[in-house]
Write a structure and sequence with these properties.
single chain; 322 residues; alpha/beta; Rossmann fold; seven-stranded mixed beta sheet; three-stranded antiparallel beta sheet; 8 helices
Length: 322
C-alpha cells in the first residue's frame, strides 16, 4: 500500500468536531469504542459526549481500499499498461534491502493490487501477496493471469494471514510505503511475520519515517512547523477526497489510521523473536509528503534547497532465528 496525506484532513478520534459527533475512544487494536464515555479533546477543544461510538475502522478502510483499487488500476500514477509491458515497480532501496530473490519464496504483506508483488515474481521469486481488499486481490489475480507469473493472492485481514497460509513459510517477507499506519496493533503484525518466516528467513520493510507525522504537511514553509504529537496513541480519522494516486476520482470517504513510534516498530519485531540486522534512515522519500519537496532523477523526493535534511524514510531488515 502507498498513501500520502495530500488528499486528507486529520482529526483525532479521541474527540469530536462540532458537526461530526464523537467517533470514540479507540486506542489499541479495538475495532469499536469500548469506553463508556470518550475522554479526549480535539484541536478545537470540543469534549465528546457520553454514548458516542465509532464505526468499525477496519471495515471502513477496507471499503475505501476497494474503491481505491478500482480507481488506481487505471491511474497514471500506477501506469498499469506500462507495468504489463515490463515497467519496474521496485525501487533501489527495496532492491538493495531484499537482495536476490531468484528461486526464493516471498510473502508480500499489504500488497494492494499486486504490482510490486508481481515485480518480485519477475525477479524470480515464487510470491504470495496478502491484502484485505477484495477488489485489490481480484485485480491482482487478473494481472497474474495476464502475465502468467508464479504468484497467488490471498484476501484476508493481515492478522489472519497465518491461518490462511496453513503452515507455509517463506524465505523473504516484504512490506513497504504507507502500509503499517493502517494497522492498529504492531505486536500482532510482528507475530504474523515471525510465524511466516522460515528459520533464517529475512523480513524487510521500507516506510516513511514516523518523525514526519509531527509536521504540518500542508505547509509551504521551507522549514515545516511542528503540528502534531509524536506519542499519539489515538486512532486518527481522515476525511478522504480522491486518493494519492487518483486525486480527481471523486472518492469521498472516512478512513482511520494509527501512528506508530520508532521504538514501537523496532520493539514489536524484537519482541516477536526476530533479530534486527540493519536499520537505515534516509533524507529522501519514495513519494511526496510536503508540497515543497523536489523529485530527483532517481525517483525519490527530497527537501528543497536551503531546507534542513530531515529523516524522511527508514528501512529495517530482520531475520528469524535458525
Amino acid at each position: 500500500m502507498r498513501a500520502c496525506r495530500s488528499c486528507r484532513r486529520r482529526s483525532s478520534l479521541h474527540a469530536r468536531s462540532p458537526d461530526s459527533g464523537c467517533t470514540g475512544c479507540a486506542r489499541q487494536p479495538a475495532r469499536s469504542c469500548g469506553a463508556d464515555a470518550c475522554c479526549g479533546i480535539l484541536d478545537g477543544g470540543i469534549v465528546a459526549d457520553e454514548g458516542d461510538t465509532v464505526e468499525d475502522p477496519i471495515a471502513a478502510n477496507r471499503e475505501l481500499w476497494n474503491a481505491w483499487a478500482d480507481a488506481h488500476v487505471g491511474s497514471e500514477f500506477y501506469d498499469t499498461e506500462g507495468f504489463l509491458a515490463g515497467r519496474e515497480t521496485i525501487d533501489q532501496v527495496e532492491l538493495e534491502g531484499v537482495g536476490d530473490v531468484a528461486g526464493k519464496s516471498l510473502l508480500h504483506l499489504q500488497c494492494h493490487f499486486g504490482q510490486t508483488t508481481l515485480s518480485w515474481a519477475r525477479h524470480g521469486a515464487s510470491v504470495v501477496g496478502v491484502d484485505f481488499s477484495e477488489r485489490g486481490v481480484a485485480i491482482a489475480r487478473e494481472l497474474t493471469e495476464q502475465l502468467e507469473l508464479d504468484a497467488r493472492f490471498i484476501c484476508c485481514d493481515i492478522y489472519d494471514t497465518l491461518e490462511h497460509l496453513e503452515g507455509e513459510r517463506f524465505d523473504v517477507i516484504f512490506t513497504s510505503y504507507g502500509a503499517i499506519s493502517w494497522l492498529p496493533d504492531l505486536k500482532r503484525w510482528a507475530e504474523v511475520i515471525a510465524g511466516a518466516l522460515k528459520p533464517g528467513g529475512r523480513f524487510f520493510i521500507a516506510e516513511h519515517h514516523p518523525f514526519l507525522w509531527m509536521f504540518d504537511d500542508y505547509t509551504e514553509a521551507l522549514v515545516p512547523p511542528f503540528k502534531y504529537p509524536y506519542f499519539d496513541a489515538n486512532v486518527l480519522r481522515w476525511e478522504e477526497d480522491g486518493s494519492y494516486a487518483a486525486p480527481d476520482s471523486g472518492i469521498k470517504a472516512t478512513s482511520y489510521s494509527w501512528q506508530h513510534t520508532f521504538d514501537e516498530i523496532v520493539n514489536s519485531l524484537v519482541g516477536a523473536g526476530l533479530r534486527i540486522t540493519s536499520l537505515r534512515e534516509y533524507p529522501y522519500l519514495a513519494f511526496q509528503w510536503f508540497p515543497t519537496m523536489v523529485k530527483g532523477a532517481d525517483g525519490f523526493w527530497r527537501m528543497p534547497e536551503g531546507a534542513p535534511d530531515l529523516p524522511l524514510m527508514y528501512s529495517i531488515t530482520a531475520e528469524a532465528p535458525e
